[in-house]
Every structure is written in C-alpha cells, then in structure tokens.
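Dear colleague,

Following up on Tuesday's group meeting, I ran the structure prediction for the two-component complex that the binding team flagged. I've pasted the input sequences exactly as they went in, so you can double-check that nothing got truncated or mislabelled along the way. The structure tokens for the whole assembly follow below. Feel free to forward this to whoever is handling the docking comparison.

Inputs:
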Amino acid sequence: MKARHEARIVENVPEGAGTNASDGMVRMTLHAPEVAREARPGQFVNLYPRDGRLLLPRPLGIADADEGAGTVTLYYVVVGEGTRALASLAGGDRVELLGPNGNGYDLAAAGRNVLLAGGGTGLPPLLYAAKRLREAGAPATITAAAGFRTTPLLTDRLAQSCDTVFTVTETDRAASVRTSGATSEPLALMGNVIDLLDAVGAPEGVTGCLACGPAPMLKALAAWCASRSIPLQVSLEARMGCGYGACVGCTIDTAHGRRKICADGPVFGAGEVTWA
Amino acid sequence: MKGDTGMGATNICGVIWKNPVTTAAGTFSYRESVKYYDPSALGAITTKGVSPTPWKGNPLPRIAETPAGMLNAVGLENPGVDDYIENELATLKKQGLVVVANVAGHQVEEYCQVAEKLSATDVDMLELNVSCPNVAEGGLAFGTDPKAVAEVVTAVKSRTRKPVIVKLSPNVADVVGIAQAAEAAGADALSLINTLVGMRLDLATGRPILANGTGGLSGPAVKPVAVRMVYQVSRAVGVPVIGMGGIMTGEDAYEFLLAGAVAVAVGTAALLDPAAPARIVRELEAAVEKYGAPRRGA
C-alpha cells in the first residue's frame, strides 16, 4: 500500500545564478525510488516540514523523475514558514513525503506537436512533461511559452527538451527571448503568457496544450485555446489540507460535478472546468 | 485478531466495535483512505457529514495552517444522503465494516430527513453534527443551546431506531449542560469535541485567510481542551462518550480513555498521515500493554 515515508535528500540547493535559498527558487532532489518509478508529469508529492508547529503537507509538482537513479526533483520558492523549513534541510537529511499524488497530464492525448504554457512557479511540472514527450516513441515538436512577473526561472532547463522556448516578463522588455537550441533572439515584448502567445501565435499544427500557472492565467489561456480549437489540459493549484483526497479542502465545480483538485486533478481538461 | 487492541471488543449502544478506534467525521475518504490502510483494522468508520440534499460547501480557501493544528471551513460539502447511501455506504457495508453516518442539517427537519433515510439502510449508528448553523435561529449553531440540542435529538430519535450519537461543540460556556440536555432528550451516546472556532489573518491584506472568515481548529493544539471536556462530560452523564480532538498517537488515544471515553476518533492525524488511524490502533494496543487497561481516574 502507499504510505507516507521518509526519503533522503540528495541535494537541496538554490536554483539559478545569483540567488540564494532565502529569496529564490530551490531545487530539491530526493532519493525516493518508488515515487520515481511511478511519477507521471503533472503529479505532485506532499512534503512534510520537520517542525512540530507545521503539520500540513507542502504539495510540490514533480519536475523530474529518474527511475534509474531512483530520484525525484522538485522546485519551490521560499514563501513562508513551511518552505523556509524545507530550505533549511541539506543533502543527507531526511524528509517525509507522500506520493506521487494526483492524476497527471495525459501526454498521449496532447499529441505530438505540443504547446507548453507555464506561468511563474508553474513551470516545474512542464519540465517533466517536456522530458517525457521527448522520450516517447514518435518525434515530437515541443514549443514552450513561459511568463514571469520579474525574473525568468527554469527556462534554460525547459529549453533542453523543447524545440522553441518563448520567455516573457511583465517588467523587463529585454528579458523576452525566443530560444531554439543554442540560439536566442530578443522578442522585445513585455506582458504575460497570453500577451506572449498573442504576439507569437499558435505553433503551426499544434495538437494540444499543457499548462500550469496561476488561475487567472489558466482561465485566460482556456479562452485563448478554445478560440483556436487547441485541446488544453490545465494543472490547477489550491491551498490544500491533506493533499490526498480526504479533507475536501480543495474542490472545484466541473462539468462532471464537484471534483477534488488534489485527488481527481490537479490536471483537468480546460473544457470541463467551471471557470470562476 | 487484526485490529484487536488487547482490550477486546467494545460494545457501544449494542453495536460491537472490534476495537475502540474510529475515524473523525470528514477525515475519511472511502475512495482514497483505503489506498493507505485496510479500514477493517478499525472498530468503526465514521463518515463525512451528510445532508438531505447536496451541499456545495464554502468557497476556497477552506484550509489554513495554525501552530500544531489547522483551520478548516469546508462547510460540509457533500453529495447528499441519497448519493451517500448508494455509493459510500454501500461500498463500506459490502466490506463488512461498522459504519457511523455523521448527519448534518440546517433545520431540525433536515436532520430528521437524513436520519429517516438512513434508518432504511444497514448503517450501524448515526452521529448528529449539532455544530451546524440553525437557520431558524439566525445561524447560531444548534449545539450552543441546550434547548435546540434537545429539540434536534428528540425529533431525530422519534424518526429512527438506529443508535444516535450526539457530537458536541466545544464552543460553549458549559459543555456539561449541553451534554446533559442531549442525554435527557434521548441521545444514546455522546462524542466530543468538534472543532473550536478560530481565525487567521493574512498579514499582507489584513483579511481572513479563509474565505469563510472563521474555521474550525483541529489537531494536537486542541487536545488538552478535548481531554478536559471528555473528563467533565463522562463524569456527568450515563451514556457512553467517544473522545476526539488532536489524537496523533496511541498514547493520546489512551489519555482519552483515561479521561472517560469508551472509544476515540482520529481526525486531523489522518489528514497528515493517511494510515494514522490504523497506526493508532497498534499504538493504543502497546499503550494498554504498557499502562494496563485504562482506568478512569478519581
């Protein structure tokens, strides 16, 4: 049976140049062979801070899983007490986890010409989706559109599995670029993911879109994809209680009735979500 | 026997639990929890509050973390009693489990409608959640007024022959008075405590974190309050008392038995570790071995 269990931290280090764990993004790699074996893109794990005051899990999207090495990689930004407690852990320490949780993306349904759309800290699940799409049998065309408020994060990692990555921020025109392999060219854009997609257009022949990001972005993206008949799968986020489907803390309305984001999702077809 | 705490089976109002551990309402999912433990390890499964019609519950966010606890304002989202009977109850009874159905309502008649429908099923016991807002009294919880508690219990008892447990609210000045009112009205057993009303504010916006404003506090932070109330109530009534509130370990459960409970419920612990109820059965067995059969203190 599945169980909450301890995993050894392989590394827990700041991600990106010039950042540190107290204000940036942290990359945590765990030795968790069972999770690594089962993990599908779009699924998440519950991490439990080692602190008697903080009991609730921190649900973190799986950014990579290496079955051979038995490792799982997660990214998080230090935003409060819980993530601060997680950031204080070091390689060799142990952390309790539960997972993989949730349903994950249906990669087959997305087809072989896929648009990935990520906003801010919503990028990690897309890294893993891109890797798996690339590994799958038939050749894939993968285009990513990534939007950030100020600082692009993880776009270099995304570029490793994508044909093209478009990056935009809401504050710095110079940060917007189109990256293909080793070449980068400026886009001279400023705005969010939708502004970016409006500017560069839908990839020719796109078969599906996988997205993860803040709710307003996903709602706008749902309209953008619907008007272009692009099937869209969105990974939703909510403040969760248990993170495995018992507490009913994170339900949403869908075309099929009430659904739990943590257990029935976090991935839903954009068309089935009743957007608030 | 699996799930035997070494104290033998527990008879609660004529229903045999093979050990004195159940789930607290709203913390067990018949679809999800069973992926983590075999529910037959427990004495009974207490299911999430069910109302006559589907309830949508409160807007999100519904959960906020607090020191050694959590606030929830789910608002008793549930698919309604008909769906409950057809799906959840049928699934659990097919596995031969003892099932306690937690019953919610906004009016006396709503509790009665649910109780009546459940009476026609093989559910084992009913647990009335009297912490719901009473629409007829401007939203004040039934459980804060001895007369309102008595009214609900009397009405429900007249419509069902299933044993009725009344789950008491701790948000009262005199929990013993409420307990005695419930007993006098015909409650077959009492369970306590429900969550304590609390609030957290977002430091940046100054507004409550929960969309509902307030929420119910649970977890180890409330355990001393729960132990105190179980201690007081069990000494003041003749009916069995089921204790709950922040039980995280078998020793916590044992403390409730010492306080006077005949059985315990595990709630928040199961949200943090899905297999906690089954673990606590094993740990309680060890505690009984270590400290002896729980004896109610002076």
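Chain A has a mean pLDDT of 94.

Cheers,
M.
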